[in-house]
């Protein structure tokens, strides 16, 4: 039972850790302006006119000179091309009061293109043109043509075009099968690191998929099978690129942005703090911009702080506090809750529309304050405590009038308090340094002042202890106090006083040696390996003679024993054998002096086989002779 | 004590002189030669030093190897051992001796440096 509890707790904690995603990439107002500029370029042909006009209309912007554009479209229209008709029809639809003249031939051409033999792009263009020009079309035929096309060509772009086409058809048509393609296509998206979700075909395909999927879903009024996290990942992928290579890419991003802002099911919410998320007494309002992906503020939203906790103490400061909307920006007076300085974790919820996606955001807010130094007391205390300390109080930013003298019998001490200027609460900033600067030699030594348990800062300087830091150089040192922290608005550098230090055993002030890191180093002489000591040549020669001497002894002994040379028959095999054998011995000598193993083996094989044959012959003859003559005893 | 040792030695020498065939005596002389060569090499190493150690090793191993091969030849040739070596004729033994020596010298010359 306990194990089950523990296990469920573990699972729960894992689930809670994987919070809903929030968009990491979104278009800012400058990005939207850039998109608009790109789409407002003067157009060169009908295709670019289509992209510009329809793209701008998706951003909610109308073209500058509608009449001129309409004239341009009409003059560039080629009634015999389906593509041209498509561009013209769609563009004219976006322009007010622009009508394209339609002839029967045009209508027939467009209707004829709707068949299984045309490509998906042709079917899409003809259906869209028919729909924009207000001509009737047979939805069921289109559906069957699309289905046939999808089964023939299974690639991503074909299916996206099919989805777009289906969104222009009558609602009575059987669009169920095509609707299912959305889910299949969504499964083909590549998940990159859990942050991005895109097709390997690229940004344009992903953006067109989003606009097509939502267009069709809105048309049939069925929620698209995309989870919240997937929608956010798609937002990240599509809006991560802030400058677009081509007009078609910009157009696809604009249509994706429009569909994500205006569809009936999912509206991603972008929350960003205006400026740094930092507040202080001079700036008590936390301002948030809550917009859709096109950077248009969501006025219908209500923004609520679910909880605000201090990161250091984890105590909740706020709970369920609403933001007020002012000039399109949501603001909250956080300083009214009188938070102590530091960092706070805000959990913000945006409500108001069930379509909102990623409407829970975590924000880190910094509260900064001003610090003031109280009770700065400087004193020189005698080590043996015989004379009482004289304490001088110095007020910031003044400097102590008299300089303090400390030699080896005395200790220089400094105490002070750091408090929040407005609330009087004691502070412990990250940086509290005491810097002593010798004006004559330019030397400086920095110490850290530590607070005690009552948050009172203390600094003590004992000249005998700190001799090494100062290099025992006596003289007048200017004393500075440095206070700094990320949450302080007024970091302090204060020349508090001058201190005259006297060290014992003063050495002559050594000139600080310039670092010899980058000067050439002494050259290293390589020491070659000493050859081993060899014995003198005389000794070697003597021993060589000694080692060779037993050979003479052998010859003498053999002669004395009566070597049987007389039995040496001069048959060819014997002669050849002896020559071969001598050659082998000669080869050994040559091997020692000149050859390597491989060459030797080669020669040895030749000579050896020759010798073997000769020797075999010779020994056989010998054997025959000895058995016949019975020489063996 | 020394008397008996001396008499044993003299008797052994007498036996050797008379009953050993000439062929074997020749091989024995060869063995003595090899032995002395090895001893002199070792003496050099002990007295002067092992400077070209590989050379010393190869020379010494050559002596030892030759000694062993010659002993094998002697055993195989000895007519008193004929029953043990029915398949090996003296000529065959000599041929083996030569072949083994070829291999030994190949290795020795490779190592002597």
TrEMBL record, chain A:
- According to the entry, every stretch annotated as the Ribophorin II second domain falls at 269-367
Where does this protein reside within or beyond the cell? Endoplasmic reticulum membrane
Pathway it acts in? Protein modification; protein glycosylation
Keyword flag Endoplasmic reticulum: yes
Signal sequence annotation: 1-20
| Major subcellular location class | endoplasmic reticulum
Key words of the record: Endoplasmic reticulum, Membrane, Signal, Transmembrane, Transmembrane helix
- Ribophorin II C-terminal domain boundaries: 528-623
GO biological processes: protein N-linked glycosylation
Q: Where are the transmembrane segments?
A: 542-563, 575-594, 600-619
What this chain does, per the entry, is described as:
Subunit of the oligosaccharyl transferase (OST) complex that catalyzes the initial transfer of a defined glycan (Glc(3)Man(9)GlcNAc(2) in eukaryotes) from the lipid carrier dolichol-pyrophosphate to an asparagine residue within an Asn-X-Ser/Thr consensus motif in nascent polypeptide chains, the first step in protein N-glycosylation. N-glycosylation occurs cotranslationally and the complex associates with the Sec61 complex at the channel-forming translocon complex that mediates protein translocation across the endoplasmic reticulum (ER). All subunits are required for a maximal enzyme activity.
> What protein family is recorded?
Belongs to the SWP1 family.
Q: What is this protein called?
A: Dolichyl-diphosphooligosaccharide--protein glycosyltransferase subunit 2
Automatic annotation (TrEMBL), chain B:
Transmembrane annotation, as ranges: 30-49, 55-73, 93-112
Q: How does it sit in the membrane?
A: Multi-pass membrane protein
A GO BP entry is:
protein N-linked glycosylation
**InterPro entries associated with the record:** DAD/Ost2
Q: In which pathway does it act?
A: Protein modification; protein glycosylation
Q: Which UniProt keywords apply?
A: Endoplasmic reticulum, Membrane, Transmembrane, Transmembrane helix
Where's it found, cell-wise?
Endoplasmic reticulum membrane
Keyword check for Aminoacyl-tRNA synthetase: no
Indicate the principal place this protein occupies in or around the cell: endoplasmic reticulum
Q: Which PANTHER family match?
A: DOLICHYL-DIPHOSPHOOLIGOSACCHARIDE--PROTEIN GLYCOSYLTRANSFERASE SUBUNIT DAD1
Quaternary structure, per UniProt, is:
Component of the oligosaccharyltransferase (OST) complex.
Q: What is this protein called?
A: Dolichyl-diphosphooligosaccharide--protein glycosyltransferase subunit DAD1
């Amino acid at each position: 039972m306990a194990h089950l509890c523990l296990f469920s707790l573990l699972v729960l904690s894992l689930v809670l850790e994987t919070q809903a995603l929030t968009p990491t990439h979104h278009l800012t107002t400058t990005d939207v302006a850039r998109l608009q500029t790109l789409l407002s370029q003067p157009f060169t042909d009908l295709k670019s006119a289509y992209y510009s006009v329809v793209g701008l209309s998706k951003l909610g912007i109308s073209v500058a000179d509608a009449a001129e554009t309409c004239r341009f479209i009409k003059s560039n229209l080629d009634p015999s091309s389906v593509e041209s008709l498509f561009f013209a029809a769609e563009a004219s639809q976006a322009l007010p009061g622009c009508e394209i003249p339609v002839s029967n031939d045009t209508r027939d051409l467009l209707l004829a293109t709707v068949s299984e033999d045309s490509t998906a792009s042709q079917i899409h263009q003809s259906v869209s043109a028919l729909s924009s020009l207000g001509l009737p079309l047979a939805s069921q035929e289109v559906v069957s043509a699309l289905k046939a096309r999808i089964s023939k060509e299974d690639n991503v772009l074909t299916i996206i075009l099919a989805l777009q086409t289906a969104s222009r058809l009558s609602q009575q048509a059987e669009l169920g099968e095509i609707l299912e393609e959305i889910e299949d296509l969504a499964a083909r998206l590549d998940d990159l690191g859990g942050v991005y979700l895109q097709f390997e075909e690229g940004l344009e395909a992903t953006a067109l998929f989003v606009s097509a999927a939502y267009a069709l879903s809105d048309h049939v009024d069925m929620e698209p099978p995309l989870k919240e996290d997937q929608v956010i990942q798609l937002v990240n992928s599509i809006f991560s690129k802030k400058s677009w290579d081509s007009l078609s890419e910009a157009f696809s991003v604009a249509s994706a942005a429009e569909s994500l802002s205006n569809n009936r099911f999912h509206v991603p919410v972008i929350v960003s703090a205006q400026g740094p998320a930092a507040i202080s007494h001079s700036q008590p309002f936390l301002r948030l911009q809550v917009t859709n992906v096109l950077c248009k503020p969501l006025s219908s939203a209500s923004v609520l702080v679910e909880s605000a906790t201090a990161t250091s103490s984890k105590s909740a400061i706020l709970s369920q506090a609403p933001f007020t909307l002012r000039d399109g920006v949501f603001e909250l007076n956080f300083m009214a809750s009188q938070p102590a300085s530091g960092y706070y974790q805000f959990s913000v919820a945006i409500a108001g529309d069930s379509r909102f996606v990623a409407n829970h955001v975590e924000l880190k807010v910094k509260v900064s304050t001003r610090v003031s130094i109280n009770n700065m007391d400087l004193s020189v205390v005698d080590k043996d405590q015989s004379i009482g300390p004289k304490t001088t109080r110095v007020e910031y930013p003044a400097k102590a009038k008299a300089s303090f003298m400390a030699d080896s019998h005395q200790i220089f001490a400094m105490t002070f308090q750091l408090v929040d200027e407005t609330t009087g609460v004691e502070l412990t900033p990250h940086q509290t340094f005491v810097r002593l600067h010798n004006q004559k030699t330019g030397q400086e030594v920095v110490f850290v002042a530590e607070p005690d348990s009552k948050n009172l800062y203390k600094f003590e300087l004992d000249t005998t202890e700190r001799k090494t830091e100062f290099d025992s150089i006596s003289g007048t040192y200017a004393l500075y106090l440095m206070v700094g922290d990320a949450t302080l608005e007024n970091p302090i550098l204060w020349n508090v006083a001058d201190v005259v230090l006297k060290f014992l055993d003063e050495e002559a002030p050594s000139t600080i040696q310039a670092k010899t890191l980058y000067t050439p180093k002494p050259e290293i002489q390589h020491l070659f390996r000493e050859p081993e000591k060899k014995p003198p040549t005389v000794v070697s020669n003597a021993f060589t003679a000694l080692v060779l001497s037993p050979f003479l002894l052998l010859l003498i002994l053999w002669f004395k024993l009566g070597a049987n040379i007389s039995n040496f028959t001069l048959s060819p095999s014997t002669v050849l054998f002896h020559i071969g054998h001598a050659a082998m011995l000669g080869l050994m000598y040559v091997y020692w002096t000149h050859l390597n193993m491989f060459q030797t083996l080669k020669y040895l094989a030749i000579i050896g086989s020759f010798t073997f044959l000769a020797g075999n012959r010779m020994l056989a003859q010998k054997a025959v002779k000895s058995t016949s003559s019975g020489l063996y005893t | 004590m020394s008397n008996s040792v001396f008499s044993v030695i003299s008797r052994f020498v007498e036996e050797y002189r008379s009953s050993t065939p000439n062929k074997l005596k020749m091989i024995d002389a060869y063995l003595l030669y090899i032995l002395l060569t090895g001893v002199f090499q070792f003496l050099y190493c002990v007295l002067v030093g092992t400077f070209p150690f590989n050379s010393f090793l190869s020379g010494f191993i050559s002596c030892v190897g030759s000694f062993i091969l010659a002993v094998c030849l002697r055993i195989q040739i000895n007519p008193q051992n004929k029953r043990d070596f029915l398949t090996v004729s003296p000529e065959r033994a000599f041929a083996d001796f030569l072949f083994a020596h070829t291999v030994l010298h190949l290795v020795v010359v490779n190592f002597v440096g």
